[in-house]
Sequence to fold (232 residues):
Amino acid sequence: MRPTCPSPQIWNADLARFPEVVAETIRLAAGAGLVGCTIEDSTGNPDKPLYDLSLAVERIAAAAQAGRALPFPFMLTARAHSFLYAAPDLDETIRRLQAFEQAGADVLFAPGLPDIDSVRAVCQAVSKPFNFMVGIKGKSFSVEELSAAGVKRISLATVALSRSHDGLARCGARAERKGPVRFPGPFRFHGRSQPTDGNLMWPDAPASGGTSRPRRALSAQKIGAVPCSTRR
Fold:
């Protein structure tokens, strides 16, 4: 059975070393419903963390060729990972990004750039859109700064997921300490608005021995519901 995606997805397809396997991975990903992917120059080997430039470029070229043969637009992002490892080199990062651009990448990406001047230098050195990933401590900048430097796309990495986990943990901790929290209006649960007086009730559940437990009020926050804001 072929998996399908309900909405367009971008995927990290960096699972294959050899260019021909990269191309086949792109075709399979597109068949599953994906409309884009990223390809890194990382090897996964700590002793040699980056592919040689020639092989890295061949992998991007194979991916680009496979993507352009598809019957729909497929966005290929090429990533240069020098700044994620020891002895990063801005000139080498730019050289790789320029080579990836020539090989057919649609978007260019170099995570871990240390300052806004480096971001600006990269953007000025390439003509394809440059993606900046926020979330690295000490290496994130405002939208205004990134836009002024020439960045065309901003990605969040795991920031949104981490924030949602943090929020859920805080809600649970508050409910444990203070009990139910009342909301003045409806809340959203699984994408649907539900009227509530601020509390939810567990349905009656038989306890051991067959007797029924009394209904127990629970905070909407404690079960993960998010209050709807009435302000726009």
